[in-house]
Amino acid sequence: MVFKEKPVSEQPQLVSAHTQQNRQKLDLPLFHFSDAPVSSAYLDSLKSLTIKIKTVSKWLNAAAVEATAHQISLLQRLTFVQEVHPINGYLTASSTSAPASFKPAYVSKAINQIKPQALFEAGLTGKGVKIGVIDAGFYGAPQKAGLAPIFESGRETAFRDYVNPDQQHPYTVRESNLDYHGTDVLLLIGGYDPTLNLLTGLAPEATYYLARTDHGKRENRMEEENFIKALEWMDSLGVRLVNSSLGYATGYDDPKENYRPDQMDGSSMIARAVQTAIEEKGMTIILSAGNDGAKQSWQIIGTPADAPGTIAVGSSDFKTWTKQGYSGVGPAFLPYLKPDLVCFSANGTSFSAPIITGLAACLLQFKPELTNEELTNILRQSGHLYPYGNNFVGYGVPNAQQALWLAQDSLAATVSMPLKPLLVTGSKLKYKAAANRAAMQYNGGIVLFRKRSPTQVIRQEKRSTRARRIKLKRLPNETHTTLQIGPEVVELVWQ
Questions:
Q1: What SS3 state is found at 376?
Q2: What is the radius of gyration, based on Cα positions, of the chain?
Q3: Largest CB tally within 10 Å, which of 152, 171, 242, 437?
Q4: What is the reported pLDDT for 250?
């Protein structure tokens, strides 16, 4: 890796008297920038992060290190690191104690977006982790090629139908079109087709507890009561991780039951139950942010994703990491940030949240002693915009390598990345992009989040990755701008 700078003073004593004599004979300067040593503070920082230093070069202002895949990800984000180069032509992670036992040939676009290679190298598949899934129905799930291994191995441990408790054939009787919904969600948490070696969910070896709480043909508050019952049932069975792609706002059969936007503040009964599960039962609850982002009469997230302790997940584009138009926005009146994270989905936030649930399961398999608060913080800190989250995309797209590294090193989880806002005087700015085009394309392109406060977005903008200089003119009421240039994130504060 190459460092950005180093302390320099013109001190001839940095080299020997003989070297100085040689330079005088050759009519060379007595001092070169390359004579100065690499900053000891930089090297101490690497050591404190348990990164093994192999060689240090003062001439190149660089160090050769041995690093795991997640440590490589961290190095690329450190502000004092200018470049990370492979020595042998490609970046290779050092060996880990876990076996490299899981190598899917094909992965879904959403999984690919969060860079899962470190999970595969560590052999993480959610094995031994109990996952609860609360949804609308799981019709045909055992017959799906990607879910057959779960059912054949008996890892679908329990099922309850709170809509129709007398139902004896939950997977073969379809009562509404939404009965496919839970099946699709389950595929995105733990789907794996061994014949095709195709992975659609990161937790194919987890143990699953399924609950049907929502009826596709009827919409009433009873469904929220069913949700609460299912949550209590799952807690009684020792489930620590729950995914639900259900959310409630409007559209009830009786309009009197519809919520108002100002009620999306964590005060609904279902949100209170979810918060109880988090604060008193130690559960991690991952929820979809809702699909009303483009609905002018609503736009914001639904409940229970509005509860403060949840991981509320929205949807992003795949190549350029902006908010999908339909993805729910965090209300301006909340004193906390929502959504928390995003990842790619072309068909709704229902299919973003399961990807993050699979990631969470892998982290719990890797380190079962993680508390739900620690796990939630790790997921948030792995977001590509952290710590500059906003109400469009939260902390952004999580990086699985970064998340695994944070889970591995408890010290690292408490270390704030040395990112400082850039103060901008005036109303215009030209910013030179440091990342190359390939790095930009691989890490979400060039995106601007123009904001009226540290978290509230006025609008998001995409820029071409061909741009080497980004020109900005301050918008009316704009106080902050998050500038994402591939892996580089800069927070601008307008003065």
A1: helix
A2: 25
A3: 242
A4: 93
List the catalytic residue out of 70, 181, 215, 480. 181
Measured CA to CA in angstroms, residue 146 lies from 104, 124, 270, 461 at distances of: 13, 18, 31, 37
Q: Give the active site residue among 35, 135, 161, 214.
A: 135
Cα 167 to Cα 159: distance, rounded to the nearest angstrom: 11
The helix (H) or strand (E) run that includes residue 448 is strand 446-451
Q: Which of 128-132, 397-401, 431-435 shows the lowest mean pLDDT across its residues? A: 431-435
Q: Kindly state the tokens that stand for 443.
A: 């890490």
SS3 letters across 202-260: CCCCCEEEEEECCCCCCCCCHHHHHHHHHHHHHHHCCCCEEEECCCECCCCCCHHHCCC
> What is the pLDDT, as a whole number, of residue 9?
54
Share in percent of the chain as helix, strand, coil (round to 5): 30, 20, 50
* Sign, Cα dihedral of 90, 94, 98, 99: positive
Strands 62-66 and 81-83: unpaired
Give every CB contact of residue 251 below 8 A, 6+ residues apart in sequence.
219, 258
Question: Please, what sign has the CA dihedral across residues 93, 99, 102, 105?
Answer: positive
Residue 239 corresponds to which tokens in the numbers above?
């489930």
Determine whether 135 is an active site residue. Answer: yes
User: Does the active-site annotation cover 32?
Assistant: no
Q: Give tens-digit pLDDT for 410-421.
A: 555 544 444 689
Catalytic residue among 245, 315, 345, 350: 350
Place of tokens 């441990």: 157
Decide yes or no: CATH 3.40.50.200 for domain 106-414.
yes
109 Cβ partners below 8 Å, 6+ apart? 318, 344
- Residue 272, CA distances (Å) to 214, 264, 306, 380 in order: 19, 12, 10, 22
Closest CA to 48 of 400, 415, 420: 415
In this structure, what token pair is assigned to residue 336?
């906390």
| Cβ atoms 213, 162 nearer than 8 A | yes
Instruction: Using DSSP, state whether 441 is helix, strand or coil.
Output: helix
Given a contact cutoff of 8 angstroms between Cβ atoms, the answer to whether 385 and 393 are in contact is yes
- Read off the amino acid at residue 5: E
Longest Cα pair distance anywhere in the chain, in angstroms?
Answer: 97
Neighbours of 491 (CB within 10 A): 19
Domain coordinates in residue numbering, the chain: 2-83, 106-414, 422-494
